[in-house]
Amino acid sequence: MTTGTEEPTLTVDELAARAGVTVRTIRFYSTRGLLPPPVIGPRRVGQYGSAHLSRLALIEELQHQGMTLAAIERYLEQLPEDLSAHDLAIHRALVATWAPDTAEDASQAELERRAGRPLGDEDLERLAAIGVLERAEGTDTFRVDPGLLRLGVQLLDVPIAHETILAARGVLLEHTRSAAQELTRLFRDEVWSPYREREADPEHVAAMKSLSAHMQPLVVQALVTAFQRSLKEELRAAFRQEER
């Protein structure tokens, strides 16, 4: 697996601090093959990069899903070896979409430690705008999703106005909520209701609930894929129109 375009610059201690794990955990993951080896720098000091951070975040998310290390190892082996840090961040976000909420309370100092950079008021506003964190009223504490924080920090350097971010978030929330309502209605009317009419056995009902849980990640993946294709088509059409 490559480490992306960003050169590895983190020591093992810095990587552990950024990822919120111990150095011992990083070395253990490396021996299990869950984490690629570091680049050997000057004085034979191992150096890590953004792809290592993203891989650690993905491992953490898979553990939250209840997977054992052996299962995680098999899962990671199926991923392409040339995934960039950005690709891994997106993959982690897809995994997290059906995971339970994992928000934590953190001070600004803790946020900056995890982000690996200072976070000013404007940065915090942008992170709040995209739903990464929210400030607890009347305190200096923030409620934050540790995994989304890494992706949100990457977006801080994207030259998009704060108002545009808010508008984009509103559009996404409106249309994803509408899609969720329609999909829920379709599943309830066409799958769940007929099934309950035919099978009153509690075991069958439990099996149906399990089916709905397994369907959720498949639906999320389908939505993301459809959105990516639609967005590419719309952008191409828009640029073609501008060229004319």
How would you describe the overall organization of this protein?
This protein is mainly alpha-helical. It folds into three domains: 12-96, Orthogonal Bundle (Multidrug-efflux Transporter Regulator, Chain: A, Domain 2); 104-155; 162-243, no CATH class. Helix content is 66%, strand content 6%. The strands form two sheets. The chain has a three-stranded antiparallel beta sheet. A two-stranded antiparallel ribbon has the order 1-2. The longest helix has 42 residues, at 202-243.
What key phrases describe this protein's structure?
two-stranded antiparallel ribbon, disordered N terminus, Multidrug-efflux Transporter Regulator, Chain: A, Domain 2, 244 residues, mainly alpha
Helix and strand arrangement:
Blueprint: H1 12-19, H2 23-32, E1 39-40, E2 46-47, H3 50-64, H4 69-77, H5 85-96, E3 104-107, H6 108-115, H7 121-129, E4 133-135, E5 141-144, H8 146-155, H9 162-198, H10 202-243
Antiparallel strand pairs: 1-2, 3-5, 4-5
Taken as a percent bin, the fraction of beta residues is: 5-15%
Order of helices and strands: HHEEHHHEHHEEHHH
Q: Spatial order of the strands in the main sheet?
A: 3-5-4
Q: How far apart lie the N and C ends?
A: 42 Å
C-alpha geometry = globular
Bin the helical content: 55-70%
Q: Give the low-pLDDT segments.
A: 1-5
**Domain tally:** 3
Q: Count the strands?
A: 5
**CATH architecture assignment name of the largest domain:** Orthogonal Bundle
Which structural category fits the helices and strands?
mainly alpha
Largest sheet at a glance?
3 strands, antiparallel
Average pLDDT for all residues: 76
Q: What is the level 1 CATH name of the largest domain?
A: Mainly Alpha
